[in-house]
Request: fold
Amino acid sequence: MGAARVISGGQTMNPSTGDFLKQINALPNQNIILLPNIKNIYLAAQQAAALIQDKRIFVLPSRTIPQGISAMVAYANLRDSHDADEIFAAMSEALSAVVSAEITTAIRSVQIGNVTVHEGQLIGLLEGDLVVSGENMLEVLRDLLVKAGTSKRELITLYYGSSTHKAKTRGEINRTKAKW
Reply:
């Protein structure tokens, strides 16, 4: 989508300030916008930006991959602009239009608020907060989408990881749509 560099990472492989510095210094660009896309690495991106003296570094407060993708769409729409402040403002505005929801598997049993989770159960996170749990993918998905206020949204985009079976996921989504 036009990114000059991608730093690999994930929930358990957070890039360090040094990882950011290495990539920033390797770029010829004078204006650089960093998209952490995971709340846990935002501070590392900010620290790296503060250490760079010879380039303008903007750190977009993107907390999720969907926010980052939305920001990159805004960037693509302004790709010909040479105004880094205008581009950063458009990318920042794009974040506010995104509600991020995630379904994953609980790695331990826990009680958070009014949600009880047993290890191995499916859990639904809304903006990183635990909001639903259950045994059935369709029910967790439905409850999560309701809590996300999808009835007031224009577009729902689903992303799934490499360990998710594509055909099975599509079948479950189609069954969910049919039930609604």
